[in-house]
Write a structure and sequence with these properties.
This protein is mostly helical. It has helices at residues 30-42, 58-70, 82-92, 103-111, 119-127, 133-138, 141-155, 202-205, 210-219, 230-243, 247-251, 257-269, 271-274, 277-287, 294-306, 313-316, 330-341, 348-365, 373-380, 392-404, 410-416, 427-434, 441-450, 452-460, 470-490, 496-526; strands at 9-13, 17-21, 48-52, 161-163, 178-180. Strands 2-1-3 form a 3-stranded mixed sheet. A two-stranded antiparallel ribbon has the order 4-5.
Length: 543
């Protein structure tokens, strides 16, 4: 607050501070002269209060104006205060019609040399506009400063923006008279989003608020879906990564949503030549923290889903958002798999590679106590049967899920196994399944029945019984012993009813084996091929 002599004006600026001034300020301001004149008509009070709202820079800006007025229209103008003084002069109408060589004229004269300012001077002047950005932008000041900034970049870069006057006629012109050089529109295959290709000006521009960066992109005609510049896309990602480390950025996600969409549109337009699948996943994970729109998210996921066979397990282990209780973002993986399955470029080799990847992913997410069974089954059943030569990996994942979710009901546990193709389970997996106490009896029986053809093939092979040899007989006895051992392992289970069901099936199998062996022995005796087996080679007892 400025303390002056008694009698004068009380001016309350933006509801923040009151200035007690003489009418000398009206000698330089058309707006104040008009306000004072209207105020005197409404009241006879000598000391009246004038309310001013929306003043650029608030009390600090108004104090600079007062210093100018009380110093006979003089004030040191620098790159640090010229933006604020110019906006104040425009707001108060401090033109040549009110006083000669007024504040507005002085600031405009200072700005005439803007295109010869140093890089740091431009940065400082534009940065100072942030506190009164709305007003500075409304009078075109921010665009002037940004254009000077872009001119400086163009003069000191080989692969960036160049003035339209020196551009080739084939380069499309932006609304502000700038063109992209042809080099900025090329997308070499070697370029990756994490490569050391940042331009010299990237770091300096990270000090600006999102509104100013959006203005820069709009002036270049590359905002939103119009972005097809690799350089600008890389800059936006670099900017958001630098700014995203602050708490203010995370608390104001909406301020960055426009930039996030712009970056994604740029990525989509050049994805095939400039970004790997891993790079696309990094972009998706990163920009999702800044309020990405649904359209941009869908477009990026379509790209990633079509290249899913290029991903690794680590790429898919995306942390879930805070509002979700799960550890990993399973919904994202489900959407990517859906895109992949419906892709036109899916081959048998690609789908088997994705099948192995999904099995590994299932084992990683299975221990999550907050993972719903519907989500687990959604991932397990997301691929067609031809994606897997073996379902052992799915069974291992189910076993881990059952161990981590001990409260599942009988029906829920039975439903969990409907995603298995029992015929594609190995014999070892079936043996483990049969003696697993967490697995329902009906599931074990179904799995064991599916192994019946394999068991018979292993016991008798493809040869004719009439051509059997002694070695085949010995092998048959050995297989019977293994079967009896398998049955004994099943009896270890705590569930008596389950063991009885399993034993009944095994007994039927063994009885069939015995009948086949007796038939073979009868033929051997009849044909005098061999002597009857000694008493110590008798068939094993069933009980």
């Amino acid at each position: 607050m400025l303390h002056l002599y008694d009698g004068g004006l009380y001016i309350h600026v933006n509801g923040q501070q009151t200035f007690f001034l003489s009418e000398i300020v009206s000698a330089y301001s058309r707006k104040l002269r008009k306000i004072i004149k209207n105020q005197k008509r409404r009241t006879l009070i000598k000391n009246s209060t004038i309310e001013i709202h929306g003043f650029p820079g608030g009390p600090d800006g108004f104090e600079l104006v007062c210093r100018f007025c009380y110093n006979n229209g003089k004030i040191p103008i620098t790159v640090s205060n010229v933006s604020l003084l110019h906006c104040c002069a425009v707001f108060l109408g401090m033109t040549e019609k009110v006083a000669s060589f007024n504040l507005l004229q002085q600031t405009e004269t200072f700005f005439e040399g803007m295109f010869y300012w140093s890089w740091s001077d431009l940065i400082v002047s534009l940065k100072n506009c942030e506190s009164f950005y709305a007003y500075a932008d409304s009078i075109g000041l921010t665009e002037k400063l940004i254009c000077a900034l872009l001119e400086n970049i163009a003069q000191n870069s080989d692969t960036n923006l160049i003035p339209s006057s020196s551009s080739s006629s084939s380069s499309p012109e932006t609304p502000s008279g700038f063109r992209f050089s042809s080099s900025t529109r090329t997308t070499p295959e070697s370029i990756k989003p994490f490569s050391s290709t940042k331009q010299w000006w990237f770091e300096d521009l990270t000090i600006f608020a999102p509104l100013i960066i959006e203005k820069v992109i709009k002036i270049l005609g590359s905002y939103g879906s119009d972005n097809n510049s690799l350089v600008l896309t890389r800059f936006i990602l670099y900017y958001m990564k630098s700014r995203g480390q602050s708490k203010d950025a995370l608390n104001s996600r909406s301020a960055y949503s426009g930039l996030a969409d712009t970056a994604v549109y740029g990525v989509i337009s050049m994805a095939e030549s400039a970004f790997s699948c891993r790079g696309l996943l990094w972009v998706l994970r990163f920009v999702s923290n800044f309020g990405l729109s649904n359209n941009c998210r869908d477009g990026l996921e379509r790209l990633i889903g079509g290249l899913l066979e290029q991903t690794t397990l680590d790429d898919l282990l995306v942390s879930a958002r805070h509002e979700h209780r799960c550890v990993y973002d399973v919904n994202l993986v489900l959407r990517l798999i859906k895109v992949f399955v419906h892709s036109e470029r899916v081959s048998a080799q690609k789908i088997k590679k994705v099948g192995a990847l999904v099995d590994m992913y299932l084992r990683e997410i299975a221990p999550d106590h907050n993972l719903k069974m519907s989500k687990f089954l959604g991932v397990a059943e997301s691929l067609p049967d031809c994606a897997r030569d073996s379902f052992d990996g799915v069974y291992r994942a189910i076993d881990i899920y059952l161990e981590s979710h001990p409260t599942l009901s009988f029906d829920e546990r039975s439903r969990l196994f409907q995603c298995l193709n029992y015929e594609k389970l190995s014999l070892e997996a079936c043996k483990d399944l049969a003696k697993n106490p967490r697995i329902p009896a009906n599931v074990s029986i179904q799995a064991l029945k599916s192994q019946k053809p394999k068991f018979q093939e292993q016991e008798f092979g493809s040869g004719s019984p009439s051509k059997s040899t002694d070695s085949q007989m010995v092998m048959t006895h050995k297989d019977v012993d293994e079967s009896r051992s398998f049955s004994q392992e099943m009896m270890i289970s705590e569930d008596v009813e389950l063991n009885m069901q399993r034993m009944q099936w095994r007994m039927e199998e063994l009885e069939k084996v015995c009948r086949d062996m007796k038939g073979q022995m009868s033929r051997f005796v009849r044909d005098n091929v061999m002597e009857p087996p000694p008493s110590n080679r008798a068939l094993p007892r069933l009980c």
